[in-house]
Every structure is written in structure tokens, then in C-alpha cells.
């Protein structure tokens, strides 16, 4: 017994030394402190799967979402970084969850599509005017669409890609454009694969990279995609490109300063049981994805929570209790100080004008418990 105990103590000592040395190495490698999470004022309405959009005046418009399964919300509120408080400002014309929200060049916000209830995906869209703090209807989309990927193109138009059609079992391959100059939606080229719970990123050359998502079926028989394609606004067409190293849905992606795209997390068709720690990079010069190490935590349902910071690092705020920072210079992930508690799934992260990040809403490991009203600030 003594020999066993002595060997165990020696092993524990060696593990502790190695862990300490590893932590020291990671700290030196990262070069920059990861920052921390601190609480800020609570949301007026608890919500998940909402949108959060930075306005020209520095405030954040938080709109729609769900309070809990089956309770869809039309309300909207403003977050003021100066006071750290949220204020209700009225409601949209329709309850929306899984909708798109894009800040237009004219300072207004387009809110389009989404689900207003079980099998109730909508075609309607509206504009929020931050000057009057009011919502006004605009043209309807070409058809019902929820959980689409939305991107502001370099010409000022908005591209909406895929999602669910009239109901959640109808995956869409179609895409459409919203033109703020005319206030109209028009169809554009379709994808090669229908996608829902996918993601899309505007690249430096003006093309849009679309990747992952579910193309058919439901849990536990969903068909999850590793495939990716690019949309060219000049031709209005989608073209297949290299596939990801893993099939992912409920993932996140963000454009890096060097023009590559970082892809993180998501899950396979096992959903909760198939979450990833892995990350990969897409190089537009070669059209290929390559593995890029592992995050500190498994993450999925984090579509709106990967943010590129002003210094080029990336905050990954959702999908796990503790956010982390990716440093492209060292290709390393490092947890930040503090946690977001239960607000980890389908929360939002918004880069503020002063370089901080607002993290809001979401829900925890028990979906039936509903959303949290909590909000946090990330400080680099």
C-alpha cells in the first residue's frame, strides 16, 4: 500500500508540475490577457434566439426571440452602454424567433422573417428607425423563411440564404435579396444544398461563404452538412467549394483580419451528444478548410456569438458557460475570466462602439426552464 500511495503522490506531483508549466506556456504563448466577463443590467424580457444589433447612436436594439418553448415574442428593447440598462421601446408587428436583423447603410435595421409560432414561419419584414424608435412595415419576402443566414453585401443589399420554409421540416436552398433603395425583396440564385442552422460570412472579395447546417430530417436522423459554397453578388450564383473537415450545424464563423474564415463548434446529428470542441479555417485563396486546434470547451447553438475584436482576436461567447478568446497570431484558445451561467445557448454577442461586447439572453442545460434575463459585458 505504501508503494502504491507513494507512486500515486509522485504521479500527482508530476501532473501538477506539468499542468502548471503548460499554463505558464499558454500564458506566454497568448501574449495578451484574455479579458473578463462582468454582469450588466438585466433584459426587460427574458429571451433566447433573439437578435441584437448595434445602432449608429451606440445603443443596441434587442428584438424578438422566445421566452420559453412555445412563447414567441414581438417586444423590443434598447441597451444603453452608458447606463448599463435595458429599456422597452414597443413591439414589432409580428412575434419573431430565428429572424434576420441587419443594420442598413441608411441607419435603419431590417428585421425579416422568423417564426411566430409552431409551424408559423412568416414572410413579413419591417424596418426599425432609431431616430423615432419605431417599427414600420416593408415589402414581404418571396416566401416564409426562418433561421436563414443574412449578410449585408458590399453594395448595401441584404442577402438572405436558406433556412426553414413554411414549417421547420422544409429546408430551403433558395436565397433572396433586399434592396433598401426600392424596399423590395427579389429572388437570386439557389444553393446546391438546402440548409438550416447554417452560417454565412462576407469575405473581403465580396463573395459570401455559406457552410454547414442541416439539409434534411430531424433529430436523431438529421442530415448534417460538411459542404460549403460561395455566393457571388456579381453573377448571383452559388458555387461549391471545399468541404469542412467535419459536418456541423448550430456552428459559428467569423472573418479574420487576414481574410480567412474561422469556424468553431457546432454539432453532428447527435445534437447535444455530438458537440464539438474543434475549429477550422477556410482559406479563400485555395478554397479549402483545414483543422485549427480545439477550443477549451464543447460548444453548439452559438451562431450569433462569435465576434472579431478590434485587435483581431475573436471572442467566442456562446455555447458553453465560460467564453474564450481565439488568437490568430498563436492559433490558441484561452478562457476568459468569469462565466455567463445559464445564458449559453442561442444568446447574442454584439461588439459595442468602445470595444466591449454585450452578451445577452440565452438558456441553459434545461430547455424547459426557458430563457434567462441576464446580460454581461466582455472587457478585453
List descriptors.
single chain; 380 residues; mainly beta; four-stranded antiparallel sheet; 32 strands; globular
Strands of the widest sheet, in order across it, are 1-32-31-30
Largest sheet: 4 strands, antiparallel
Distance between the termini: 50 Å
Record field, number of beta strands: 32
- Which structural class do you get from the secondary structure elements? mainly beta
Average pLDDT over all residues: 92
The value of Rg in angstroms is 21 Å
In DSSP terms, counting alpha (H) and pi (I) runs of 4 or more, how many helices?
Answer: 1
**Amount of beta strand:** 35-45%
Helicity level, as a percent range? under 10%
Task: Give the quaternary arrangement of the chains.
Answer: single chain
Described by the principal axes of the CA atoms, the overall outline is: globular
Which stretches of 5+ consecutive residues score pLDDT under 50?
1-30
What do you see in this structure?
This protein is mainly beta and 380 residues long. The chain has one helix and 32 strands. The chain has one helix spanning 2-30; strands at residues 36-39, 51-54, 60-63, 66-68, 71-72, 75-80, 85-91, 100-103, 109-112, 125-129, 134-137, 149-152, 158-161, 175-179, 184-188, 199-202, 208-211, 214-216, 223-224, 228-232, 237-241, 252-255, 261-264, 276-283, 288-299, 306-308, 314-316, 324-327, 332-335, 348-351, 357-360, 375-379. Strands 1-32-31-30 form a four-stranded antiparallel sheet, with no helix packed on it. A hairpin with a 5-residue loop joins β8 (100-103) and β9. The relative contact order is 0.13.
Amino acid at each position: 500500500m505504501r508503494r502504491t500511495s507513494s507512486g500515486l503522490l509522485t504521479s500527482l506531483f508530476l501532473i501538477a508540475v506539468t499542468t502548471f508549466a503548460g499554463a505558464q506556456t499558454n500564458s506566454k504563448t497568448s501574449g495578451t490577457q484574455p479579458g473578463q466577463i462582468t454582469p450588466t443590467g438585466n433584459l426587460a424580457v427574458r429571451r433566447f434566439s433573439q437578435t441584437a444589433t448595434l445602432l449608429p447612436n451606440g445603443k443596441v436594439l434587442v428584438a424578438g426571440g422566445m421566452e420559453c418553448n412555445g412563447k414567441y415574442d414581438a417586444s423590443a428593447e434598447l441597451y444603453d452602454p452608458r447606463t448599463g440598462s435595458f429599456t422597452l421601446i414597443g413591439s414589432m408587428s409580428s412575434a419573431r424567433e430565428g429572424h434576420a436583423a441587419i443594420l442598413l447603410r441608411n441607419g435603419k435595421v431590417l428585421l425579416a422573417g422568423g417564426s411566430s409560432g409552431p409551424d408559423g414561419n412568416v414572410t413579413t419584414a419591417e424596418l426599425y428607425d432609431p431616430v423615432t424608435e419605431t417599427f414600420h412595415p416593408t415589402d414581404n419576402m418571396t416566401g416564409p423563411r426562418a433561421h436563414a443566414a443574412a449578410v449585408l453585401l458590399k453594395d448595401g443589399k441584404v442577402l438572405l440564404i436558406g433556412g426553414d420554409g413554411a414549417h421547420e421540416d422544409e429546408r430551403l436552398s433558395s436565397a433572396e435579396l433586399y434592396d433598401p433603395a426600392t424596399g423590395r425583396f427579389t429572388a437570386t440564385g439557389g444553393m446546391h444544398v438546402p440548409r438550416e442552422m447554417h452560417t454565412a460570412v462576407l469575405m473581403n472579395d465580396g463573395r459570401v461563404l455559406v457552410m454547414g447546417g442541416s439539409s434534411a430530417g430531424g433529430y436523431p436522423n438529421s442530415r448534417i452538412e460538411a459542404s460549403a459554397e460561395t455566393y457571388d453578388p456579381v453573377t448571383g450564383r452559388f458555387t461549391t467549394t471545399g468541404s469542412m473537415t467535419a459536418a456541423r450545424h448550430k456552428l459559428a464563423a467569423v472573418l479574420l483580419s487576414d481574410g480567412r474564415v474561422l469556424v468553431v463548434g457546432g454539432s453532428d446529428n447527435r445534437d447535444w451528444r455530438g458537440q464539438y470542441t474543434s475549429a477550422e479555417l477556410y482559406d479563400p485563396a485555395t478554397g479549402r478548410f483545414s483543422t485549427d486546434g480545439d477550443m477549451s470547451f464543447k460548444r453548439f447553438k452559438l451562431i450569433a456569438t462569435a465576434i472579431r475584436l478590434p485587435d483581431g482576436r475573436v471572442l467566442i461567447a456562446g455555447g458553453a458557460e465560460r467564453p474564450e478568446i481565439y488568437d490568430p497570431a498563436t492559433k490558441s484558445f484561452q478562457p476568459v475570466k468569469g462565466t455567463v451561467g445559464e445564458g449559453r445557448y442561442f444568446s447574442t454577442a454584439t461588439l459595442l462602439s468602445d470595444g466591449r461586447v454585450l452578451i445577452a439572453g440565452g438558456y441553459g442545460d434545461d430547455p424547459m426552464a426557458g430563457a434567462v434575463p441576464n446580460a454581461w459585458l466582455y472587457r478585453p
